[in-house]
Amino acid sequence: MKRRGRGGVEGIVVVDKPSGFTSHDVVARARRALGTRAVGHAGTLDPMATGVLVLAVGRATKLVPWLTATDKRYEATLRLGVATHSLDADGEIVARASVPALDGATVQRAAEAFLGRRGQRAPAVSAIKVGGRRLHERVRKGERVEPPVREVELFAVRVRALEGCEVRLGLHCGKGFYVRSFGRDLAEALGTVGHLSALRRTASGPFTLDDAVAFDRLAEARPLGLAEAVRRWMPQVELSDRAFEDARHGRPIALEDLSTPLPPLAGGTEDEVLALLHEGALVALARREGRGLRVVRGFAGG
Prior knowledge:
Elements: E1 3-4, E2 8-9, E3 11-17, H1 23-34, E4 39-42, E5 50-57, H2 64-68, E6 72-80, E7 82-84, E8 93-96, H3 104-112, E9 116-121, E10 129-130, E11 133-134, H4 135-140, E12 149-163, E13 166-173, H5 179-189, E14 194-204, E15 207-208, E16 213-214, H6 226-231, E17 236-238, H7 241-248, E18 253-254, E19 273-278, E20 281-289, E21 292-298
């Protein structure tokens, strides 16, 4: 295990979060188990949900904005005919409705109507802040809230099984997508109401359940190093000694000072972030700017 400073660890730790714990609970446990307060998470999981929760430890906390932006994969179970205030099994029942006769093909067609980019109303019971306060805190105090509608993207959805009033689904979605909201909206499209009775995140960006450590074995976790972590999902370039000095001081980096060719743009956008490496270590993250690179986050020097 790589350690820095006063015994603290550093890198990426993937946890298989159990049901009944908040993401904050996992962070708190990790801080105690790993001996450092420098722990953050990328992508909140609801208390009922299980599965992949990516933790950033030490300098890896600087990667959180990019880790959070990665796509996610889920396995979900939608219970039709019963709605709850939280849109999941932890909530209070607020409505019941009959469930029409359905088959798998009908449900698949209805689910595919949500593919692509579209507005999605967030759950009222969520960590989204409105007016500086989290919605779930306002709901808990009995306040009426109007959750925001945000643009999200669903890349793929597959009906795994339809058994009675339960639909098992596999989803691949982008940043900010609420599977609970999707369950509510799909149930409505099917002519009834519904809530999630189970939700498991199987992947967050390049990190999967195969990378995960059990929640009760956090003290045994071996963090993935910074360079190895960014190689999972970011394009990289190797710096010459001269470029390394520029990068570590936050100066612009000339393309001719790169030791490896600049990779082609992914998706045709110059906002793409690249990982800058030197002798196998992560030095900085940068964006293309004119005929060079501009550092947006530095890692050299601890």
